[in-house]
Design a protein that fits this description.
342 residues; 12 strands; globular; alpha/beta; 12 helices; 3-stranded antiparallel sheet
């Protein structure tokens, strides 16, 4: 059984109720998208995440999580630690982190774009993500199947799109030719579960023509799913104010690590560090945190994003659904009754 089964059950029930209003009632458990067990090698959770990319580190005044899944992040560690490239990366992190406060480590890491979080920093108990008014709500629901553009990658965003596709929405997954969804090659079976019901459109998002294709697709959509920080969209020609000016009734489901607005908007996050930020950890008697499972913020964020998408459409759209992974993880921790730091 999943360590966050109560949260998955509650969120799945909300998804079933909402999807039944728009089309086919979706039982999320039947889609096989809530966990990756059996699809990749996973270790037992401990101080290191099951996929071995994220570690829980003791700082001078608490615990942090740093996710070094990408090679470019590993290359940034010396700059983060303010040291020469070490022979043993993990040992250097452990030694330096103990001498510095968590806030300082987070600030320096965020400036470099590292996925880093303080354990339990996020708060939230509402499973439905907040909505930011951006456009003008429609009068009534869209006619026919919902038209969805899914520009997201990895797990949470594609899971939202998979739920909407299973409901009967016409979902198009748009991928950059130069930066395709990594899940396509790292876990191809899971990729098919997440994206098998979607139409696919691969475009060159660095070209004017490719950006025009993306713009046209978004303008024709009822729902737009993304999984990048706000700063990523200007180079694509997708300023949020301009998008809503052109299509006022759109529901933009914006999945980020720490929120669309405020200081958190500039921060990077992935499933395991966001789970730690939300308090989805197990505290040992000696005050040491351990991971509870594999990238647990991803499935609860995917469910929360689907809930937010359908609530936005039901209200007429004209909103940006602010789906923060750390906040979704905190909500799941609250539903499951997981204790905060001792």
């Amino acid at each position: 059984m999943s360590p966050i089964a109560p949260a998955l059950s509650r969120l799945g029930g909300m998804v079933a109720e909402l999807t039944a209003r728009f089309g086919q009632r979706v039982v999320v458990e039947d889609l096989g998208v809530s966990d990756r067990r059996g699809l990749l090698q996973l270790d037992p959770p401990g101080l290191t995440s099951p996929n071995r990319a994220c570690r829980l580190i003791r700082a001078a005044d608490g615990w942090i999580a740093i996710n070094l899944a990408r090679e470019e992040d590993q290359e940034l560690v010396p700059a983060w630690l303010r040291c020469d490239p070490p022979a043993d990366l993990d040992q250097a992190i452990d030694e330096v982190a103990r001498t510095r406060g968590a806030a300082e480590l987070l600030e320096d890491g965020a400036m470099l774009g590292l996925p880093i979080a303080r354990v339990g920093e996020a708060v939230g108990d509402d499973p439905a993500p907040p909505q930011i008014a951006m456009g003008q709500p429609r009068d009534g629901r869209p006619t026919g199947p919902l038209r969805v553009v899914d520009l997201s990658a990895l797990w949470a965003g594609p899971m939202c799109g998979a739920i909407l596709a299973a409901m009967g929405a016409a979902v198009t997954k748009i991928e950059s030719i130069s930066r395709p969804d990594p899940t396509r090659t790292t876990t191809p079976d899971f990729f098919r579960r997440l994206n098998g019901r979607k139409a696919e459109l691969r475009v060159d998002l660095t070209s004017a023509g490719g950006q025009a294709q993306l713009w046209d697709a978004v303008l024709a959509a009822d729902v737009f799913i993304t999984s990048a920080r706000p700063r990523a969209f200007a180079p694509l020609g997708l300023d949020s104010a301009e998008v809503f000016a052109a299509t006022p009734g759109l529901t933009w489901v914006a999945i980020t690590g720490h929120g669309w607005t405020g200081e958190g908007a500039a921060r990077v996050a992935f499933g395991d560090d966001a789970a730690a930020a939300g308090g989805l950890v197990r505290w040992l008697p000696d005050g040491t945190p351990n991971f509870l499972g594999d990238a647990l913020s991803d499935p609860v964020t995917g469910l929360g994003a689907a809930i937010g998408a359908l609530q936005g459409v039901a209200a007429g759209g004209g909103v940006l659904v602010d789906v923060a992974m750390a906040r979704c993880a905190a909500s799941a921790a609250s539903i499951c009754g997981i204790a905060r730091a001792p």
